[in-house]
């Protein structure tokens, strides 16, 4: 049975791909869960048109992403934390705190796209990587300071 994937399915394929699956898997799981549609000529044409439109939008957003990447590379954020003995942090600094600190500087980044390069357990300077588009992965400097 040939189906056209509407979204990424682990170990099967990514959105827009035409894949061959067993009839039961397609009929009982993929199609009812809206993860795929039956691969008819009309469905294939529809997805090709949508794909073309998405590529045009992606070109426009690629320029914006490059601009955002340059802005992030030049940005450093300060995160105040409470500390205990030996300047050790109570807990750890999370990507949510980094996203909030970036938001204060009018840079909106989804917290799920921020990856902290190492565990932040003490005061100091750290880096976080932001996954934007494809291979655009700018790094943001993070200063962890003692809260007043």
Descriptive notes:
This protein has 148 residues and is of the alpha+beta class. The protein folds into 2 domains: 2-61, 3-Layer(aba) Sandwich (Ribosomal Protein L9, domain 1), CATH 3.40.5.10; 68-146, Ribosomal protein L9, C-terminal domain (Ribosomal Protein L9, domain 2, Roll). It has 3 helices and 7 strands, in the order E-E-H-E-H-E-H-E-E-E. The strands form 2 sheets. A 4-stranded mixed sheet has the order 4-7-6-5. A 3-stranded antiparallel sheet has the order 2-1-3, with no helix packed on it. Strand 5 (114-116) and strand 6 form a beta hairpin. The longest helix has 33 residues, at 41-73. The N and C termini lie far apart (64 Å).
Tell me roughly what share of residues is in helical segments: 25-40%
β-sheet strand percentage: 15-25%
Number of domains: 2
CATH class label of the largest domain: Alpha Beta
CATH architecture name of the largest domain: Roll
The main sheet orders its strands as: 4-7-6-5
According to DSSP, the number of beta strands is 7
* Largest sheet geometry: 4 strands, mixed
Q: How far apart lie the N and C ends?
A: 64 Å
The coarse overall form would be elongated
CATH domain fold name of the largest domain: Ribosomal Protein L9, domain 2
Per CATH, the superfamily of the largest domain is: Ribosomal protein L9, C-terminal domain
- Residue stretches low in confidence (pLDDT < 50, at least 5 long) are none
Query: Taking all residues together, what is the mean pLDDT?
Result: 88
Helical segment count:
3
**Run of helices and strands:** EEHEHEHEEE
In terms of structural class, how would the helical and strand content be classed?
A: alpha+beta
